[in-house]
Design brief:
The chain has about 140 residues and is α+β, with helices and mostly antiparallel strands. It contains five helices and four strands.
């Protein structure tokens, strides 16, 4: 009995599983799409940063804004020194090096009801089965029930 097995690369390509292939592009795009309701929203910059900073198919979602890290982990970093003009707080000055204050951020849910810290992890907990079923479809596999 002789069994001929295709090279690994050929098998991956046949199933769209190669690096940067259709399956990985689907997963990246679907994760970004499904993260939106979980992502804090003020101006939309943080939400858009996932699309702008990510190379779809790379397997890595990048949200590169100056505050993404603080928002993601939900901890207020400081010091945040108030700037006053005519006795009214106009804004805050933050030095280049900040430290965690121990206080939790408070997130507005007026735009995204599920907005809060660790939005990717929470989205994944809620949506991973649907994303995996889609990936199986893109690979030509048979989804399990």
């Amino acid at each position: 009995l002789h069994v001929k097995i295709s090279p690994e690369r050929a098998m991956l390509v046949r199933r769209n599983l190669e690096t940067g292939g259709k399956v990985q592009k689907f997963i990246d795009s679907e994760c970004i799409r499904r993260m939106k309701p979980y992502t804090p929203f003020l101006s939309g910059t943080l939400e858009r940063s996932a699309t702008i900073g990510t190379v779809i198919g790379s397997g890595t979602i990048i949200q590169k804004t100056p505050y993404a890290h603080y928002q993601y982990y939900g901890i207020v970093y400081g010091p945040n020194i108030p700037i006053f003009r005519n006795g009214i707080i106009e804004g805050f000055y933050s030095p280049p090096i900040k430290h965690p204050t121990g206080r939790q951020l408070k997130y507005s849910t007026s735009k995204h009801l599920k907005a809060g810290k660790m939005w990717f992890e929470r989205m994944k907990a809620d949506c991973k089965d649907d994303i995996l079923r889609g990936a199986v479809r893109y690979s030509g596999g048979i989804p399990s029930r």
